[in-house]
Amino acid sequence: MPANVLRGFRDYPPPEGGARSEIRRRMRAAARRCGYQELETPSVELFELYQTKSGEGIAAQAWMFHDKGDRPVALVPETTPSLARVFVERAKSEPMPVKWFTLAKTWRYEEPQTGRTREFTQFNLDILGVPGVEAEADLLASAALVLDEVGAAGLYAFRINDRAISEGLGRLFGAAQPHPFFRAVDQFHKISAAEFTAELGSAGIRGPAAQELQELLAASPAGVAPPDLDRYLDALVARGLDARALEGVARVRALFGLLDRAGLGDRIVFDPTVVRGLAYYTSTVFEAYARTDGGRSIFGGGRYDHLIELFEGPPTPAAGLAIGDQTLELLLKRADRWPDGEPPLDTYVVVVDPSRLPEAVGLVEELRRSGLSADCDLLGRSMSRQLKEAARRRSRRALILGLREAGPGMIVERDLASGAQRELPRSEAARSA
What we know:
The chain is an alpha+beta fold and 433 residues long. It has 14 helices and 16 strands. Helix 4 (134-150) crosses helix 10 (243-261), helix 5 packs across helix 6 (178-186) and helix 6 packs antiparallel against helix 7 (193-202).
């Protein structure tokens, strides 16, 4: 019977596999330019690792099973718990701040849909040991460089909030508990006004208070840009926010100031409806979203100051973000910015006479060892077919062995973009690239 890929999984044959590899290469290079070091962890962990972070609810999404030692284990649904485990093991000797990135396959048993598969690659940036918003500023500036380097420049912006502000608004308008209020606020842009009113009612906010809050959130549907931020925050403060909420206001002002100095003022907005989960994040939260395509979310992140303690580590401030490959791929493809595949070959060696294949093989190996990408025909095809193959491989040039017009010890170099040809000594084939 034919072997079909499982639902929610995908194959990536060439050139798609090469394009994805190129995206990963750019992400790694950008992270390293920002001072992050790569962390690699196992693809299978003890299931309790995820229960510690997310509680029993994680079982609905985790690919959990019992190994041959009858231990409950899971395919990794996210890498942050693994990062926490590694950090706790090294906490006494690890110099601060810790700036790590991971790029790993992850698995979640979710309903497949556009932009969501059951196996996906996730890119994480995390900073540990920095208590101030300098960490969030570095994360967002680094994420901006990553997105720009993969081809998304101009396609995205960041929504930023502090959960202390949202909690303060909830208390101000009469929310009985923060979590139901967060659930309501998180749905603000996704449901109708009537549905939102009903959600607020479930959180304990009804009547004129619900109407006033809805009008407040609707006043800036696209978020508050930096030029209007101080005026907007001043208006919130004037409503009577309590001390904890005022701390959140101060953090947002400081973070926006740093991001403006980092050159990101044109791609950040304050949005009090961004809350990002119910229990994980502790203060600052943010999302990247597409400027088009209905403002689709690209990734999210924020500060999680208590996670390391959950894993019996020392109190450690921490912040991070996670970018999934599926949403990033959608963004780039819809903007026609997805790579063509593997980087183009530098050189394709063409032989006029198949008897000269051994010479071609030797030249290809010489080119490769000099640092160039190179290949040659292995099927004995005609010269014209070899040149077509070189073009298909997007090779920059062809080196042609055996043309009659070439002098002794000479080969012909053809620029495959312009068609221009020249002779050069065989000994200079690598140096001329």
